[in-house]
Amino acid sequence: KGTPGASLAGLTIVVLGDGTSTGAVITKTGVVEWLYRFAKTDVIGSNGYLVLHNSGQNPAAVPADTTGAFPFTIDPAATNLPWGYQTPTGSAGDTQLESPDNMTFLLVSDFTGTDTFQTRAPNSGAGGQDLDTNDDGVLDITPWSAILDSVAFKETNGSTPTAGQDWWYSPNTCGPYISRTVVTATSGTVIAGWDYQTTTNTNGGTAAAAAPNTPKLYKSNAGVGTMYLDGTNGSSDWAQATQLNAFTGTGLNATGTAAGGNGLDPATSATSSIALVGSAANGQSVTFKFSMAAVQGVTLSYATRTSGTTTGFTTHQWAYSINGVDWTDIDVFTPFTSSFALKTLAPLTAIDGAADAYLKCTFSLATTTTSNNRLDNVLLLSNPVNSDTIVTSYAGPTMGIKQADGTWFIGVGSATVGFQDTPGSLNYAAPTYTCGDPVAGDCAVEHGNAFCADACCCAYVGGLDPYCVTVRWDAICVEAAAGCAANCTALPCPADFTGDRVVGGADLGLLLGDWGGSERDLNGDGITNGADLGSLLGAWGNCP
Fold first, then answer.
1. Is 174 helix (H, G, I), strand (E, B) or coil?
2. CATH number of 190-382
3. Integer Cα distance of 417 and 8 in angstroms
C-alpha cells in the first residue's frame, strides 16, 4: 500500500524462496525465486493498492477461471479496485506464491542483481541468484539501494527454520497457521516388540531357531527395531553353537497380532523363546536398537525365566545410550525363578527424540556351563498418556479468503472446489472481530477466526483459553463453550462489544469505527449512527 499515483519507476519486487539440492552449486535458502522490475511509467493506482497473485488458470475453479488468476482474481467492475499490474483485472504476474512455505517478498529500489527465472522451472531454485551464501538467515548480498517494504510467508513456528525449510528475511511475517488437536489418553503405543516367532509383519520379523542355528540378529516382530547379539551396537558377540539356543516360550506379555493387540503372538512352540546359555557368557550383553524420534518416553517389559534358581543368570543389568557407545546404567533385576515372570523397566525419558536409541541388558552370575535364561515377548511401549493432551501443529501462511457464500475463510489455502476459492470475488479488506460481533461466528460451532458472536460466552471461553480470542475458535473452544449456559446468566448488555461487562471507551471506539456500517447497530435500523451512539452512552459503565 502506498500513495495513490506514486511512481514505481526504479522499483523491483524480489521473492526469496527455494534453493536447490542438485546441480554444480548447491544452495539451500535465500535464493531469488522470482522478480519483477516495474516500468518507468508504472504508478500506484488511485486507491493506493498494489496486488500480486499467481498467474495461470485455477484448475479447481468451476466454471473455469480464464482470467489468469490463482487462487483468486479481483473483479474489474469493483469500486475501490485494488490496482496491480499486467492484467486487465489489475494483477501482477506469476509471483510463485506457495503454501505452505517460508518465502520473503521485498520491494526494493535500484535492483542490480541477477535472476534467470525465465530459463528455469518454477520453484526449482536452479539458476536464481543466492543472496544468503552461507544459509544462516542473514543476507550476504544486497543488490539494491534500499528495502522499501517487505513481508514473509512463514510456516515455521519459532525463530529458526526446521529441517528442510527455508529462512525468511523480513520482520513482517504472515503465519504460521496454528491448529490444535486433542490426543486422548492411551496406554502407550508399540515402538518395537520381539516374540521370536512372528515373521509376517511389515518389518519381516526374525524367528528363533535351535542351536547351532540360533540367529544373532533379530528384526522386531512388531513395530520397528533390531536386537543384536553379534558384537555390534554395544552388544557382545555370542557364540552361536554354545551360548545361544531356542526353547518353548510363553504367552505372557503378548496380546496377539489382531487389531487391539500389541503385535506379539501368545502362541508357543518348541523354539518360541531365545535362550542365553552358560557361565562362560557372564558379563555379556544384548542390545535393542530403535527410534525415539517421534516418541515421548519408553517402557520396556519382557518375560523371562532361569533354568534354575541358582544356576542360570541371576542378574540383568540394563543401560541406555543414544550412540551405542556411551552407556548409562538404569534398572537391575534379580533374582529369577524357573517359571516365566514379567519384568518391567521404569519409564524412561532420557532418550526422547533420539533417532537411534539403545537399551542394553548385561547378564551375569550363571554358575554352570549349561544353565540359561529364556527371553520372550520383549516389548517397547511409548509412555502412557494419562490424560487428554492438546497437540499444536503449524502450517502456513495464513490466508483470508472470501468464499462464494459471502463468508470469510481464514486458514491455509486449498484447491477444494467451492471451499476456499472464489474467482471474480472481492478478496480484500478481511474483517476483524471481537467478542460479541454478530458475524464473528456461532460459539457452538468451530470457525476460522477468533471470537464468537455471544459476548459473554466469548469472554468466558477466552478467559479459560486465550487461543480462542487470539487465534481461532476451534473444536476445543466449542467444547469449552458448553459451560457458557451456566456462566453467562447476567442480563444482556448489547453495547458491551468487548464482552468485559463494562460499556466504556473500547466499545465507543468500535462503534465509531463502524460508523455508517451495520455491525454495531444497536437499535436494529440497519445502520450505525447517532441513535446507536446515544444508546451506548446511555449504557455507559458496568453492565447490569
1. strand
2. 2.60.120.260
3. 36
Instruction: Give the burial string for 424-445 (b: 16+ CB within 10 Å, else e).
Output: bbbbbeeeebbbbbeebbebee
CA angle 16, 48, 170 (to 5 degrees): 25
Do 275 and 353 contact (CB within 8 A), yes or no? no
Over 65-120, what HEC string results? Answer: CCCCCECCCCCCCCCCCCCCCCCCCCCCCCCCCCCCCCEEEEEEECCCCCCCHHHC
180 residue type, one letter: R
Nearest in space to 477 (alpha carbons), one of 466, 468, 485, 487: 468
Q: Could you state, in order of their start, the residue ranges of all structural domains in the chain?
A: 190-382, 394-542
- Read off the pLDDT of each residue in 230-248 and give the average, rounded to a whole number: 96
Write the CB contacts of 383 (distance below 8 Å, at least 6 apart in sequence).
188, 296, 297, 298, 299, 347, 349
Angle formed by the axes of helices 505-513 and 530-538, nearest 10°: 170
Amino acid, single-letter form, for residue 65: D
Does residue 328 sit in helix, strand or coil?
Answer: strand
d(CA 216, CA 93): 63
pLDDT in tens, 72-87: 333 444 333 222 223 3
pTM: 0.43
User: Which pLDDT belongs to residue 64?
Assistant: 41
Mind listing the pLDDT tens digit for each residue in 18-68?
Answer: 665 544 444 568 888 777 777 787 788 777 776 665 444 333 333 443 443
C-alpha 188 chain-centroid distance? 21
Question: Do β-strands 173-174 and 146-153 pair in parallel, antiparallel, or remain unpaired?
Answer: parallel
Give the residue-averaged pLDDT of 212-233.
95
Neighbouring CB atoms inside 10 A of 96's CB total 19
Q: How far is CA 402 from the centre of its chain?
A: 26
Whose CA is closest to 511, among 454, 434, 406?
434
What lies within 8 Å, CB to CB, of 301 at 6+ separation is: 253, 342, 343, 344, 345, 378, 379, 381
List, in order, residues 6 or more apart from 349 with CB less than 8 Å away: 296, 297, 298, 383
